[in-house]
Amino acid sequence: MATNVDIAVISFEPFIQGNDADRKDVAKQLYEAFSTVGWVYLKDHGIPQSRVDEIFELAKSFFELPIDQKLTWKLADPEVNQGYTADGAEANGGIDHKECYEHRRFQNRSCPTESDLPDRHFKTTLDDFYNQCLTLGLQVLKCLAMAMDLGDNFFDDITTKADPQLRLLHYPSIEKRIIEQEGHARIIPHTDFGLCTLLFQDQVGGLEIDPFHTGDFKPAVPIPGTVLINMADLMQRLTNGRCRSTLHRVVSPRTSGDLLPARYSIPFFIHPDPETMIQPVTKEEGEFRKYETVNAGEWRVMNTMKNYRLGSQDGVLDGKVGLATV
Ligand SMILES: O=C(O)CCC(=O)C(=O)O
Ligand SMILES: [Fe+2]
To answer: Which atom of ligand 1 lies closest to the CA of 326?
Structure first.
């Protein structure tokens, strides 16, 4: 049986509560993880588990709505990238078995109202959770900036107007033989393409990571009370390859029977202000820049569009190409 991928479990409390030496120590641990496997499990991160559980319940009630109703909030514009995407409508050169809902800070035109999900307060609850994720994400970026001597406010300065993406993900219960067909998965191998991602997962399992891109995917098992954080493509470019954006996928949990239970996860994808130019930061005399400078806004739209193409029949988004997702 495959062993689990070796991802450090790091307490964030000394960064939030501690003194300078404590903060530096957390920064060092984070950088060590981000520059090797590219992922950490963060614990004591300040978002209570009860709140995370509440958001999973909210996601469940949303996905239980009839498909026709969910389609009224259909994601229709990759530039905005907000709303509902049905099972089969998105993957990247393979076939994913998932449905999702994207929530943004500034643009939420395709969002359920109070009467759609009575008592859930969908928008206000998600807005609130979004802000908690944004605060945590920016603290993690501050910690990384400290480790890399970029100046403590480096990431604050490029995220003042940032509009990250909170995604509710549902992988419906499915027969194992379907997702184990060639080219199928719950989500096929990809890297994320923003700066970094916070990922909350339920207890079902199936997330796997290929840390050194050798094809050897290993489980990243759920650890209650933690949030996974991974580096994404823009961060790899910005740090001239020092921080690593690594391949991951969601497949059958290694211990599953013939019928996989439904799985839920909640990623939060952090992207910088759209006008930011991402130029690799070099640290050594004569260091060669491994990546071209890119505009963050164009990068995001270009990569989002790779996930979709405009369907010919009804003008909706469907289909996909490429490797990276969000
Ligand atoms: O569901 C998961 O655990 C991973 C989701 C993911 O990788 C993504 O949405 O980019
Ligand atoms: Fe991902």
So the answer is: 10
